[in-house]
C-alpha cells in the first residue's frame, strides 16, 4: 500500500468508512475523514469513541476494506 492509494480512500466523497488491515492481522476502522492523517510513511488513525490514536507504518498495511466488504 502507498500513501497515494490511502489518500484516495480518505478523499472519496461521499466518504465511505473503511478498515485497514496490518501485516500483524490487526484491523482498524476509519469512520470519518477527520479522524485519519497520512504522513510520509505513517497512517495515523484516531478513534473518537474512546479517544485512542494508532500509528500504522504504511509498509505494514496489507489490505483496505470498504464497509460493504470489498478489499482494495
Brief account:
The chain is 12% helix and 42% strand. With 72 residues, it is mostly beta strands.
Please explain how this structure is put together.
With 72 residues, this protein is mainly β. The chain has one domain (3-66): SH3 type barrels, CATH 2.30.30.100. It is built from 1 helix and 6 strands, in the order αββββββ. It has one helix at residues 3-11; strands at 18-22, 27-30, 36-38, 42-47, 52-57, 61-66. It has a 3-stranded antiparallel sheet, with no helix packed on it. The protein has a 3-stranded antiparallel sheet with strand order 3-4-5, with helices on one face. A hairpin with a 4-residue loop joins strand 4 and strand 5 (52-57). The chain is globular, with a radius of gyration of 11 Å.
Amino acid at each position: 500500500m502507498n500513501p497515494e492509494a490511502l489518500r484516495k480512500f480518505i478523499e472519496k466523497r461521499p466518504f465511505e468508512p473503511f478498515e485497514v488491515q496490518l501485516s500483524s492481522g490487526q484491523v482498524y476502522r476509519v469512520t470519518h475523514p477527520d479522524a485519519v492523517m497520512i504522513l510520509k510513511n505513517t497512517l495515523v488513525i484516531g478513534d473518537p469513541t474512546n479517544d485512542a490514536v494508532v500509528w500504522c507504518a504504511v509498509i505494514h498495511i496489507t489490505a483496505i476494506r470498504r464497509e460493504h466488504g470489498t478489499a482494495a
